[in-house]
Structures are given as structure tokens and as C-alpha cells.
Amino acid sequence: MWIAAAILSAVFAAITSILAKCGIKKTDSDIATALRTGVILIFSWIMVFVAGSFESIADISMKSLVFLVLSGLVTGLSWICYFKALSIGDINKVVPIDKSSIVLTVLAAIVLFGERNHLIIKLISTVLIGIGAFLMVEKKAVEKTDEKRAGLFMHFYLRYLRQQRQF
Fold first, then answer.
1. Which residue in 2, 66, 100, 117 could disulfide with 133, CB within 3.0 to 4.6 Å?
2. Could you give phi then psi for residue 24, rounded to 5 degrees?
């Protein structure tokens, strides 16, 4: 069940990025973050009531509450930075950098929680994810080089055509 939920989370996160980029074009990034957060807040409380989970709110320990509040604050900072980056940057650069949090999360899980099963495979995979994210960000620069080459080709082709007309 957790695999299906994780896959759906990834699908919804991808759709979220696309929709956010479309919606943020002529909107202040802080307003966009607040709107998105408001919708999530309303939707989350609807899910609590639909699932019948409201009574379990009294069972949350103080330690858990502190960590959940801190998580919410950090999530807010993440969303503010994400929407700012998305409003001024290319989605193809912003999203890979944002999702490179996988690298930080895996490393933190190893250090903080001792999740060391299959450690070598985890570290190799984490390095590959980091390299993949870096290559995705750098892809645009390669395209610009190709555009320069195409421009250079057009320059010489047009020069060739002009020379042909002189004869």
C-alpha cells in the first residue's frame, strides 16, 4: 500500500509543478503560495472529517506536536522558496533542484535514523540521483550551444546564398 501511495504522491507532485508554473505566470509568488496553502488547509481538514480522524487529535504527544509544527514551518519556507524560484526560473531547472532534496533526505536518514540497510546501494543510488538532477539543470546550457551552432550554420548558409546570387 505504501508503494502505491508513494507513486501517487510523485504523480501528484509532478502535476502540481506543472499547474503551479501555469498559475504563477502573472501572480506574485507569495500570493500564489498563500492560495495554494489555503486550498491544502481546507482539503486537509475535509479529509480529517471524512476519514473520521478528528477524535485522534487528542492522542498527539507534545513531542510529536512540536515536530509537526516545525515540519509545517519548514514546509512553508520550502514552498515560499519553491514558488519564488518557479516564478522566475525554468520549470526544467527548478523542479530537479527541488527534488534533489531526495539526496539530502537519504543522507539524513542514514545519519539520524541509522537506516543503513543496503548502505552501498543507497549511497550509489543517491549519487546517481544527484548527478541526474545536475545534468537536467545543465541541459538548457547544452541546448543554447546547439542554438549557437545552428545560428552559425545559418550565418554561413545565408552567406553562401548571397555569394551565389552575385555570380
1. 100
2. -95, -5
